[in-house]
Design brief:
Blueprint (H helix, E strand, L loop, with lengths): L2 H17 L1 H4 L6 E6 L9 H9 L4 E8 L9 H7 L6 H23 L3 E7 L9 H7 L2 H15 L3 E5 L7 H16 L7 E5 L9
Parallel strand pairs: 1-2, 1-4, 2-3, 4-5
Helix pairs in contact: 7-8
């Protein structure tokens, strides 16, 4: 599904929901949980999340499974900014968790994010295999436990995740699979609409 079409679909669903909101939720707009593997995955949903918070008066929370420390390989541009040799594996893996969390919170101030749930699971390395994090890197029972608790406690109306296509980062796929499993395991009366966003990196021409 093209990225633009899916974004429009999400916005239409949220707009349709908010049109009937007064009869369903007297507190405010729709409540959204975004489940993602790494800090910065929220950027895929940034316009949607901003509109939900600023225009629909909704609430958006982020559930972040890893700290993204395997991103040290791609941190060249950040080295001068932070004054650290972040592309050095030892330095990058020790420094990036704090840096990426803070960058996420800085972005969250603009988007209007309400709550952050950091699971601090290991970001081992890039792979297309979703079984790698599920079988070796992540403490899956802990992730499931906390995700179920957050879903049960906060009564979200929508859950967003990245579309687990074959060519997608394995950790993105693993996060989506865990989320879908958690949503479908809820009691039928507590289930929320689950929406997936295709993660596309490309230049857009107008």
């Amino acid at each position: 599904m093209p990225r633009l079409f899916l974004l429009v679909l999400i916005l239409l669903v949220v707009n349709d929901y908010s049109g009937n909101l007064s009869a369903q939720n007297l507190i405010g707009g729709p409540r959204i949980l975004v489940v993602m593997a790494h800090p910065d995955d929220e950027s895929t949903f940034s316009v949607t999340l901003y509109k939900i918070v600023k225009e629909q008066h909704g609430t958006v929370d982020l559930f972040v499974i890893t700290n993204g420390e395997a991103g040290y390989k791609y941190a060249t541009l950040a080295e001068n900014y932070y004054g650290l040799e972040l592309t050095n594996q030892k330095i990058g893996r020790s420094s990036l968790p704090h840096i990426r969390k803070q960058e996420l919170k800085n972005a969250g101030k603009i988007l209007g994010i309400s709550n952050y749930y950091f699971l601090d699971q290991k970001d081992a390395h890039y792979s297309l295999n979703e079984r790698e994090p599920l079988d070796t890197s992540w403490n899956v029972p802990i992730v499931k436990k906390h995700l179920n608790e957050v879903l049960e406690k906060n009564h979200y109306d929508f859950v967003f995740c990245l579309l687990p296509e074959p060519g997608t980062h394995g950790q993105h796929k693993a996060a989506a699979l865990l989320t879908l499993n958690a949503v479908t395991s809820l009691m039928i009366t507590n289930r929320r609409l689950y929406l997936e966003q295709k993660h596309v990196i490309r230049q857009t021409r107008f």
